[in-house]
Here is the input.
Amino acid sequence: MYKIGELAKKLSVSTDTLRYYEKHKLIDATSRGVNGYRLYNNDVLKVMQFIIRAKAVGFSLNEIHELLSIKVD
Here is the structure.
């Protein structure tokens, strides 16, 4: 599990960026610690890596949201 600062550092983004994506329902904190800190697991790390790559090639946040909502059975 990563605290928000740890995840931000690992991804080379700001904590505000993570909060922004969470606010726009692209990611969710896995849980909250007893101290109220957001905690993220490796699944969120992978989603954020996908978001960063998708943004780099020109996808909008709406398009990324649609891509993330696709479920493959």
Summary: The mean pLDDT is 91. The longest strand covers residues 38-40.
